[in-house]
Specification:
alpha/beta, two-stranded antiparallel ribbon, 7 strands, 24% strand
Length: 165
């Protein structure tokens, strides 16, 4: 049922009443190869998210924690390198935003690689990767096109880390 009341000068109020259900919502966010309701890949380890948008970090954190990951956040590249250094040896992977204030993402990734080159780094961007990005001496392990679904992050992490302990 939908009820709408509007009064000039006061605004509009809408009330929507939906039937109660005990069925889980279909969010459309099932990982590739998994139908809604099927078990999703369970991940174990720590993800470092480096993104200057708190909203992005919050959404990714919540989704990754539901899938079994511990999540560490950084709001810029310099902080990301600090967190990477603090947790070296314990990181499963890094999700690094390409466009942030501060150091260039390639520099951030290079610094991370000098600390521990075995940690896969996923670069997320609203821009497509360039040929220069792929030829860089510190090329990322994967690019993730924004906007992305949490299930895409899960699938990439699972793919990149399937042979790691």
């Amino acid at each position: 049922m939908v009820h709408v009341a509007s009064e000039r000068g006061s605004g509009t109020a809408a009330t929507v009443l939906l039937p109660l259900t005990d069925q889980p919502a279909d969010t459309g966010d099932a990982p590739e190869g998994h139908a809604p309701g099927e078990p999703e890949p369970v991940l174990r380890g720590t993800l470092l998210i480096v993104d200057d948008e708190p909203g992005v970090r919050n959404v990714v954190r919540a989704a990754m924690e539901r899938r079994g990951l511990k999540v560490i956040e950084a709001g810029d590249g310099a902080e990301g390198v600090d967190r990477f250094r603090e947790h070296a040896g314990n990181l499963l992977t890094v999700l690094l935003d390409r466009t942030m204030p501060g150091p260039d993402w390639r520099d951030v990734m290079g610094w991370m690689r000098t600390i521990d080159a075995s940690v896969p780094i996923i670069v997320a961007s609203g821009y497509p990767p360039t040929e220069e990005d792929a030829r860089s001496s510190y090329a990322p392990d994967a690019f993730l096109q924004k906007p992305y679904r949490p299930s895409q992050v899960v699938e990439l992490i699972a793919e990149l880390t399937q042979h790691r302990e």
